[in-house]
Design a protein that fits this description.
Elements lengths: L86 H11 L12 E10 L18 E10 L14 E9 L2 E8 L12 H8 L15 H9 L4 H7 L14 E2 L4 E4 L5 E10 L8 H10 L3 H11 L5 E9 L1 H6 L19 E11 L3 H6 L12 E3 L3 H18 L80 H8 L3 H16 L4 H11 L4 H11 L36 E6 L5 H13 L3 E6 L5 E2 L5 E2 L3 E2 L10 E5 L12 H12 L4 E4 L3 H6 L10 E3 L3 H11 L12
Bound molecules: protoporphyrin IX containing FE.
Protoporphyrin IX containing FE binds next to strand 2, strand 3, strand 4 and helix 9.
EC number: 1.11.1.6
Family: Belongs to the catalase family. HPII subfamily.
Cofactor: heme
Length: about 725
């Protein structure tokens, strides 16, 4: 049958129809462009026609009609006008013209994956949520990580909050835990959310800057909103430039409620802890990563999952009751506050493993619709005004973005448990709902009757007593805007404090209006005098008078859990070594190092002067993943350079190789050096400056010592400033 099909676009004058060839799916990656096409695949104008057959299904229109020719529109005469009668063309262009949907108004840029949550400890005593019913219980999940401010096409390493939104497909409906990688928020009341977002997005009269808070309108707004100060300490910290989605924490932020079978309620905060430990990059590195690989975070997640290196997070809960909540200095309904782990320890209750990348980014990552109001029985809301506002907002935003009230039927959003209701019709209805009655009460029977209420088995809202006058008022218990910011600052290591100071200086330095800088520094004086002094100094401005806090700043104990570096995990697991190899490099050393890093749970990426690879000492060619010009050291957690014997294989003459070493050094990375690297080191001006974290990697013993060192922190003592 295939053999009888004629090549489309062949002019009848040219004689007998040509035969279609059966083609196998290309697995070699060999190009099949016109240059390599068989003559019988070429059309009248030399264009390539790939015909169905073998494993290739027939192309059809959206309505299923086989398409004759996808390369030429229908025209009158070889060089004549295109005809309106070409419905296949019309349909194709029509669909293309409508491909884009509005991007998310915030968190537009993101990436996600499927996974599973396994409960490791029953929480039946405090919640009837089936996801926590018993140890061993598994629930399917989908996670989307995101940046907040940037557009869909922005870069991954913006200094920004990261979204960490998880959909649990529980057997009593979807639970969306729509959190961030920072446990507090900028504002206390959702009514200010549009203002916050307008301030951080591109300035409307000029359309920039993209994906960044380093501009006047953002700092203008937050400096006028002292409640935002605590959150800015977090966004100026290394939390806002994570090394990987796999290496950051996640937080539900708000205080939620658990409700058990007996109808008793407790408050709960949710925490995700990455099994790989937390890690961040440094700012100078982030800036360069954004140029070298704007998709750094999504590629990292995709690569890890497709390699079978599944990222995991432990889910922890802080559970406390109303009486306990009343003892805190702050209000647990205020989303600008956290509950230090030292006050209420985190109880680990399960593990989530992300084990499957999506098949289609648009269908799944773009169309997934998270909504804070999606909670199953056993989970309920507190009166946090930010949460209450969010519960109101997300339904609207999904309708705007996805265009139909039936977005819950999209595969990524559809609950995995049975769904039955009397909601009917609407755009893009895909469910053929049976039965005669589309209302209740009704007196029909069987399938005609439809579903019935669950009663006390359903989601019963916790009957929290409500009293008071209807007023637009901020509770007095929300007045303290600085104490927890101070606690965060004092809980950071000196290196982390340096980074926070540098970040404020960078960001405020981008503000053109001096009064904004002054107001912000005036607020920072309430957090810590040395912080404010150092920022003012970095900006080259006199220290302004402190602003007057609405409530006295309370001195609180430091919380070591708030520091990334104080809690760094000693491991190279899940990390990546950039191995720059020169021609003539010792083959045994390359092999030994690769094996040792892989044994430590890391990944080795080989880089050479040319992507064709390097010729090793044994004459074999080592394939390179990247040429050094496209693989700066910012893409790696640590680097090693294995050069050849004479003159380091010319690496010293390669500007990208020099940058590779200089940047690795500037970014405090552990550096391995093997072969003749003196010329390269000299060319970078680093001779005489190499320190304890620049280690030889020639012999077996050296390799072991180097790989052991990789598990440790960056060499923060290095006298550079990045
Ligand atoms: C604690 C504070 C907040 C957190 C942790 C948070 C978190 C998130 C996350 C993670 C997303 C992205 C979801 C995804 O990946 O699809 C998101 C989107 C969004 N958030 Fe929030 N958000 C917060 C506050 C708010 C507030 C106060 C509002 C409005 C009142 C709001 C409105 C939105 C909207 C409209 C979207 C876009 C949703 C979409 O189009 O899919 N958020 N938020």
């Amino acid at each position: 049958m295939l053999a009888e099909r004629s090549l489309p676009g062949t002019h009848p004058r040219e004689g007998a129809p040509r035969m279609a060839t059966k083609k196998k799916a290309t697995t070699t990656g060999k190009a099949r462009g016109t240059a390599s096409a068989a003559p019988e695949e070429l059309g009248n104008g030399g264009e390539l026609h790939q015909l169905a057959g073998g494993d290739s299904p027939v192309m059809t229109t959206a309505h299923g009609a086989p398409v004759q020719d996808d390369n030429n529109s229908l025209r009158a005469g070889d060089r004549g006008p295109t005809l309106m009668a070409d419905h296949a063309f019309r349909e194709k262009i029509f669909h293309f013209d409508h491909e884009r949907i509005p991007e998310r108004v915030v968190h537009a840029r993101g990436y996600g994956a499927h996974g599973v949550f396994e409960c490791t400890e029953s929480l039946a005593d405090v919640t009837r949520a089936s996801v926590f019913a018993e140890a061993g219980k598994q629930t399917e999940t989908f996670v989307r990580f995101s940046t907040v401010a940037g557009n869909l096409g922005s870069f991954d390493l913006a200094r920004d909050v990261r979204g960490f939104a998880t959909k649990f497909y529980t057997d009593e409906g979807n639970w969306d835990l729509v959190g961030n990688n920072i446990p507090v928020f900028f504002i206390q009341d959702a009514v200010k959310f549009p203002d916050l977002v307008h301030s951080v997005k591109e300035e409307p009269d000029r359309g920039f800057p993209q994906a960044g808070s380093a501009h006047d309108t953002f700092w203008d707004f937050v400096s006028l909103m002292p409640e935002a100060t605590h959150m800015t300490l977090w966004t100026m910290s290394d939390r806002a430039i994570p090394r990987s989605f796999r290496m950051m924490e996640g937080f539900g932020v708000h205080t939620f409620r658990f409700v058990n079978d007996a109808g008793e309620s407790s408050f709960v905060k949710f925490h995700w802890k990455p099994v790989l430990g937390m890690q961040s990059v440094v700012w100078n590195e982030a800036v360069k990563i954004n140029g070298a690989d704007p998709d750094f975070h999504r590629r990292d997640l995709f690569d890890a999952i497709t390699a079978g290196d599944f990222p995991q997070w432990e889910l922890g809960v802080q559970v406390f009751d109303d009486a306990f909540a009343d003892e805190f200095d702050f209000d647990v309904l205020d989303a600008t506050k956290l509950i230090p782990e030292e006050l209420v320890p985190i109880r680990t209750v399960g593990t989530m493993t992300l084990n499957r990348v999506v098949d289609n980014v648009f269908a799944e990552i773009e169309q997934v619709a998270f909504m804070t109001q999606n909670v199953p029985p056993g989970i309920d809301f507190s009166n946090d005004p930010l949460l209450q506002g969010r519960n109101f907002s997300y339904l609207d935003t999904q309708l705007k973005r996805l265009g139909s009230t039936n977005f819950s039927q999209l595969p990524v959003n559809a609950p995995r448990c049975p769904v039955a209701h009397f909601q009917r019709d609407g755009h893009m209805q895909t469910s053929t709902q049976p039965g005669r009655a589309a209302y209740e009460p009704n007196s029909f029977t069987g399938d005609d009757r439809g579903p019935r209420e669950a009663g006390s088995d359903g989601h019963v809202p916790f009957p929290a007593p409500v009293e008071g006058e209807t007023r637009r008022i901020r509770a007095e218990s929300f007045r303290d805007h600085y104490s927890q910011g101070r606690q965060f600052w004092l809980s950071q290591t000196p290196v982390e404090q340096d980074h926070i100071v540098a970040a404020y200086v960078f960001e405020l330095g981008k503000c053109e209006v001096p009064a904004i800088r002054e107001r912000m520094v005036a607020n920072l004086r309430n957090v810590d005098e040395s912080l404010a002094g150092r920022v003012a100094d970095g900006l080259g401005m006199p220290l302004p008078a402190a602003s007057t806090p609405a409530a006295p700043v309370v001195e609180t104990e430091v919380s070591p859990a708030l520091s990334i570096l104080a809690n760094a995990k000693e491991t190279f697991e899940g990390r990546k070594l950039g191995l720059l190899v020169g021609d003539g490099a010792n083959a045994a050393a390359v092999k030994r190092l690769t094996k040792a890093v892989e044994k430590a749970g890391g990944v080795v990426e080989v880089i050479a002067a040319k992507v064709g690879g390097a010729t090793l000492s044994d004459g074999a060619t080592l394939e390179a993943k990247q040429a050094v010009a496209g693989a700066p050291s910012v893409l790696y957690d640590a680097v090693a350079i294995l050069a050849g014997p004479d003159g380091g294989s010319g690496l010293a003459d390669e500007p990208a190789a020099r940058d590779f070493l200089t940047d690795a050094f500037t970014h405090y990375k552990v550096i391995g050096l093997g072969g003749e690297t003196d010329a390269l080191v000299a060319a970078t001006g680093l001779d005489g400056k190499l320190d304890d974290a620049c280690l030889p990697v020639g012999t077996a013993a050296e390799t072991t010592a180097y790989v052991d060192r990789l598990a440790g922190p960056r060499h923060w003592d290095r006298s550079v400033t990045a």
